[in-house]
Amino acid sequence: MPAGTAFGRGAATLAANLWPLALLPSAWHYQHPLLFSLRHGESALLLGLPLLGLLCWRRLPGIARVLLLGVGLLLGWQALDYHRQRDAVLAAGPAMREVGRHFVVGYTDVEEVRELAAKGLIGGIYVGRRNVRGRSLAEVRAEIANLQAVRARVGLPPLIVAADQEGGWVNHLSPLLERLPPLAGVVDQPDPGIAAQAYGERQGGALAGLGVTLNFGPVVDLRPADRPAGDMFSDIPARAIGSDPEGVAEVAAGYLDGLAASGVRGTLKHFPGLGRVDRDTHLHPARLSETPAELAADWLPFRTLAGHAGSALMLGHVTLDALDPQRAASHSPAVIRLLRSDWGYDGVLVTDDLNMGAVYNLGIGKVASEALGAGVDLVLVSYDPRQVYRAIFAAAQLLERGEIAPETLAASARRLTGLSSSPI
């Protein structure tokens, strides 16, 4: 027999035995947020291929049968575990509600988010592209107003309604709302602060008209010279106001004042800064090796404006090696002590989306719990909203075990009460 033929038959035999291994990574990471856009196809593939294998069971080699059975059991366990946690959250026990009010969640199904809002299992919603695409301003405004009415009927505080409308290419509510140019364009105006305030009033008026109360902007990361090769989505050079710390602070202050004049709060992002980061936190962990002293200029806009009327502060998924080499800023007690104790910041801290690759693979429940335990006020779960059940479930478990201090959540609840009031 020719060697090539023997090799081909050997390869075919090996493939016939081991093909179920190709399903294992997807089964292990079932419902991973980075595959959210493929969720329906993912489910059909992962459930359809094992079913096809069962139909051909007698023809399968023994090893393939064992592997296929293992994949099926793993899929079943993942699905059952998810529904167990979801059902426990929706039962709305005291611990679930206590931690749930610290979550801001995106949504694809308004009925689902209405139930979460009515049961006090979330503190806010995130309104993005998928919620406004193909819809009128009146439709979206009525949907948000209806959710707020649900809260009022059950005696709960109004929902925080968050959006990501920076200007430039991050205009997630456009074209429903006016698409404004980048905020950086005001830097060359004769009085950048006044121009930024006018920009903020214009954008804030549109957001307020929709029902938005918290905007995730301005970006006060300093602009790097170039976009890192590994950056697929963040693109801070295009989104940053500028590279001069004092100029960035001036423009950001004017912008925040403009938003506040319209009844909308802004968010300084993304502390500790993405300007020096060479990896995209949407996909990968990122680190900063510089000390706080070496980052003083980068932090000047954050520190100058921390506590500025009408603003929150977003923690990015970047690890500060000098303070906490084990955790990203978004769930680091050391970073939050820096802000709360050293800087005296008593405003609202919100995480970047916990669906992002920099932290999700650590376990969304683990990261959410650590963030709340460290003193973060709002946990954002926006891209894949159904991950919020895992996050709330885990945090509630730790609260019941005493691993999240009730007094920490109480202090956070006080700050959130302030967020619900007018920023003016």
TrEMBL record:
Entry EC number(s): 3.2.1.52
One BP annotation, GO: peptidoglycan turnover
Catalyzed chemical reaction(s): Hydrolysis of terminal non-reducing N-acetyl-D-hexosamine residues in N-acetyl-beta-D-hexosaminides
Pfam families the UniProt entry points to: Glyco_hydro_3 (PF00933)
Sequence ranges assigned to domain Glycoside hydrolase family 3 N-terminal in this UniProt record: 107-417
Alphabetized SUPFAM superfamilies for the sequence: (Trans)glycosidases
Example GO molecular function: beta-N-acetylhexosaminidase activity
Annotated transmembrane regions: none
Keywords: Glycosidase, Hydrolase
Sequence similarity: Belongs to the glycosyl hydrolase 3 family.
Protein name: beta-N-acetylhexosaminidase
